[in-house]
Write a structure and sequence with these properties.
Elements: H1 3-9, H2 14-41, H3 44-64, H4 75-91, H5 98-115, H6 123-148, H7 153-178, E1 182-184, E2 188-192, H8 193-213, H9 220-248, H10 263-267, H11 270-285
Antiparallel strand pairs: 1-2
Length: 290
């Protein structure tokens, strides 16, 4: 085995780590400018398309944790249709009511089990997983559409995404460089207390930078506290997805994003921080002037 093969086999080695870091950098260089353009300059419907695409990929990855590849359909089709309808009801509130979609989803999940060729042995877990995926991915991502629709919505989206991903990045690098004490060895053996602290510090710093850069409506202390809160909540979201993956016996939810794993791996923290940040805005900030 040569050095290059060894690095591929052992990503924890210095060369393997550098390769991973470079791939992460390439992914960020490609995605972040595109994300900025979509949010800042394109119509809201384009952002809806981005959220919808993200949801469809993440939902399929989630279902793949439980269903075998040959059993994904028609379950995945039903989950995708309902999730798309959930997001559409958020983007265009007058189109159809959210309770009606959830009721239809519940009935459809029960009916599809009766029509399935897989038998009835797994009806309860299959139905629960099918419904949970719609809520876990579709309902939570819908809060980003609600946030985008608020005054100064594009800057609010930037804030929550920047702070959340800064926390993820800070935890990753702090864990690699300084990690010693396991945080949750049963759920994720590689996550450490030092990584968590590094992520919280990175989230707070990112919140302060965002406040000074484009969101002066947030106070300094408020930004630091929000960074701390979002960093902690994002870490919970990451651990929650790690628990799902560990129960399924997989390391990554997919491989759609180089060096990051699957789409669900990339947005797991945002699924928690997005709704929390939205309700903070609703109850404490009111309408922010652009």
């Amino acid at each position: 085995m040569n050095v290059q093969q060894a690095a591929n086999e052992c990503p924890g080695t210095p060369l393997g780590g550098r390769r991973t870091d470079v791939r992460r950098l390439y992914s960020a260089v490609v995605f972040l400018p595109l994300f900025y353009v979509i949010i800042r300059y394109l119509p809201p419907v384009v952002f809806f398309g981005l959220v919808l695409t993200t949801a469809m990929i993440a939902l399929l990855e989630y279902y793949s944790l439980h269903f075998k590849k040959e059993d994904l359909f028609p379950d995945a089709w039903l989950g995708s249709i309902v999730t798309a309808a959930l997001l559409a009801s958020v983007q265009w509130p007058g189109l159809v009511s959210l309770p009606a979609i959830l009721l239809a989803a519940l009935l459809a999940c029960l009916v599809i089990r009766m029509l399935s060729a897989r038998g009835l042995d797994g009806t309860v877990p299959d139905t629960a997983i099918l419904l949970f995926g719609m809520v876990y991915v579709g309902l939570t991502l819908g809060y980003f559409l609600l946030t985008r629709a608020r005054p100064a919505g594009e800057w609010l989206i930037f804030f929550v995404v920047l702070v959340t991903w800064a926390g993820d990045t800070g935890a990753y690098y702090a864990g690699i460089r300084l990690g010693r004490r396991p945080l949750t060895p049963v759920i994720s053996p590689k996550k450490t207390v030092e990584g968590l602290l590094g992520g919280l510090m990175a989230s707070m710093l990112a919140a302060l930078v965002a406040r000074n850069w484009f969101l002066p409506q947030f106070g300094v202390v408020e930004s630091l506290l929000m960074g701390l809160a979002l960093g902690a909540i994002g870490a919970l979201g990451d651990l929650a997805e790690s628990a799902l993956k560990r129960s399924a016996g997989v390391k990554d939810s997919g491989s759609v994003i180089p060096a990051h794993g699957g789409m669900l791996d990339r947005i797991d923290s945002l699924l928690f921080t997005g709704p929390v940040f939205y309700y903070y805005l609703v109850f404490f900030k009111g309408d922010l002037a652009p």
